[in-house]
Write a structure and sequence with these properties.
The chain is of the alpha/beta class. The chain has helices spanning 10-39, 48-72, 123-128; strands spanning 6-8, 74-76, 90-96, 99-105, 117-118, 136-140, 146-156. The longest helix has 30 residues, at 10-39.
């Protein structure tokens, strides 16, 4: 399975690398300590602390896996300049269902909480990738509905 490259600013790359390092060291150490302490309490079947710690361990391991995949496939640099063509790392404005919608085409890891993000491999991302301003495309939703989308604006993402 090939991994799609993820465009990241240097700041986002450094932040994610620091988070990964923290999880690999302190995160794993802390959760192992908590699991050990919960085991010492006795019967594991009815030990809420043990089960909560194991669930947290699963979340930490999933986040580590995700961060490793992102960082190993990262393309680090300045935001790509807009040339009016939809590509990863761009802020896209489209006409969708009769109204304008604006989103970042890329990784949620580089966006703030207010920015909507779609992956280039999502149905909408895949449909408009490579399209120019003024061009239209369509895609199917997971429920099979055909959706038309028109690219109105392509801007450099300022992060």
């Amino acid at each position: 399975m090939s991994v799609e490259p993820t465009w990241l600013t240097q700041e986002a790359f450094d932040r994610l690398a620091a988070e990964l390092e923290h999880l690999l060291t302190f995160g794993r150490t802390d959760i192992a300590r908590r699991i050990g302490e919960a085991r010492e309490e006795g019967d594991l079947k009815e030990n809420g602390g043990y089960h909560a710690a194991k669930e947290e361990q699963g979340k930490i391991e999933a986040r580590i896996y995700r961060l490793e995949r992102i960082l190993e496939s990262a393309v680090v640099g300045e935001p790509p300049a807009s040339h009016g063509v939809v590509e990863q790392g761009m802020l896209i404005t489209v006409e969708l269902n009769g109204s304008e919608t604006k989103f970042l085409l890329g990784s949620a890891e580089i966006a703030d909480a207010e920015t909507t993000v779609y992956s280039p491999s999502s149905p909408i991302g895949n449909a408009i990738l490579g399209k120019k301003v003024g061009e239209s495309a369509s895609y199917k939703t997971p429920m099979g509905k055909e959706i038309s989308v028109k690219v109105l604006k392509v801007e450099t993402f300022a992060g």
